[in-house]
Amino acid sequence: DIQMTQSPASLSASLGETVSIECLASEDIYNNLAWYQQKPGKSPQLLIYYASSLQDGVPSRFSGSGSGTQYSLKINSLQSEDVASYFCQQYYDYPLTFGSGTKLEI
Amino acid sequence: EVQLVESGGGLVQPGRSLKLSCAASGFTFSNYYMAWVRQAPKKGLEWVATISTSGSRTYYPDSVKGRFTISRDNAKSSLYLQMNSLKSEDTATYYCARHKQLGAFDYWGQGVMVTVSS
Fold it and tell me: CB contact, 8 Å: A36 with chain B?
């Protein structure tokens, strides 16, 4: 199974700041990586797929990068509505696996 | 508008069975792989099952293989999850999700709670 190690577990930042969340895969996943945002009490929402492609309707302050085993999600100009948990997920191979999540507080 | 609406959750005793349903609308259901993903209380996300467009291929993690069965009825635009031999560790919110062509989950339902307890 491909293990996804996500860091940090929690993050506190100020409005307007830029933050990054990292995800390390246990083997090469060839950019088959997605990022999700889950606001408290809500279902997850897809932000980024194929490591760097922005899902329709997602603000451009969200961006993804990386390759091989190392990937990151960057959020520019933090806004109050960005308070949420963020998860990475690999879909290169079954079983599909998620990172453990990052809780972002403003 | 894509909508996924789960139903069938509730409280069930260990060892018993439960069947979840997901009603899909707003897209051509038969064109998409579909999946179930769960989230234990205050925990992360865990993929539970995926089914191909025709239903001929199914995929599961070891944690549910042999106990859970995913199925679909394309005529009814519906997805199902039959859960047998339930354990306390199956307690979670279960989400129905649509696979984007490249494998990510682009739409999720609101989730349905399953509690396994005596």
Answer: yes
